[in-house]
Each structure stands twice: as structure tokens, then as C-alpha cells.
């Protein structure tokens, strides 16, 4: 199980802390907030504000053990159960949540 603390910006994998850069954390947060979907590279880049660099960061995240799978020709998804720590919306970067909510509402 991967646990993401959106307020404390901490990530644990199977109970062990994983050190992530701020950019890596945004990518993991986006994938976890959308764990029921497969996100294209473009969607990951747009939602995490990582233009042109998502693939490179995903390679590094996989090296750190983050369970990111890919559906060839479709995009990326988290491959293990996700737990997001509850948090007040005001304490999380509002634009990130807004972008994920818009994506979740799209067909």
C-alpha cells in the first residue's frame, strides 16, 4: 500500500518512508488522487506542472520503488492500493485539487 500525506508532503510505501523531491511528490499525488484512472503523459504533466519531464521523473520514481504501472499506448497508473490522509482543502495546493477534480469529472 502507498500512503500519501498531502498536508505533510510525505509518502510511505508498505510502511517505509520514501524520500521524494517536490516534483516527484506532485506526480505521485496526482497519480494517487486519480488512482482509479489511467493518466496519459500529457495529463500527468499538466496536473503536476511538470511539462516535458514526466517520463524522466516516473523512471526515477520507479527506481525508488513507487508502484507506477503503464498501460502501453494509454498512460500511467498506481498499481497498489492507495491511502490518502484526510486533509482540509485549504491546506493543499488548491490548483492541484481543482485540476484533478476537473479531470475526474470528464468522461
Describe this structure in words.
The chain is of the alpha+beta class. It has one domain: Winged helix-like DNA-binding domain superfamily/Winged helix DNA-binding domain (Arc Repressor Mutant, subunit A), CATH 1.10.10. The chain has four helices and six strands. A four-stranded mixed beta sheet has the order 3-2-1-6, with helices on one face. Strands 4-5 form a two-stranded antiparallel sheet. Strand 4 and strand 5 form a beta hairpin. Helix 1 crosses helix 2 and helix 1 crosses helix 3. The longest helix has 12 residues. The mean pLDDT is 83.
Q: Top keywords for this entry?
A:
alpha+beta; two-stranded antiparallel ribbon; globular; Arc Repressor Mutant, subunit A; single chain; 4-stranded mixed sheet; 107 residues
Helix/strand order, N-terminal first: EEEHHHEEEH
Low-confidence stretches: none
Biggest sheet, strands in spatial order?
3-2-1-6
CATH top level assignment: Mainly Alpha
**Total strands:** 6
Summarize the structure.
The chain has helices at residues 22-33, 41-48, 54-63, 94-105, and strands spanning 2-5, 10-13, 16-18, 68-71, 75-78, 82-84. The protein has 107 residues and is an alpha+beta fold.
What's the layout of helices and strands?
Layout: E1 2-5, E2 10-13, E3 16-18, H1 22-33, H2 41-48, H3 54-63, E4 68-71, E5 75-78, E6 82-84, H4 94-105
Parallel strand pairs: 1-6
Antiparallel strand pairs: 1-2, 2-3, 4-5
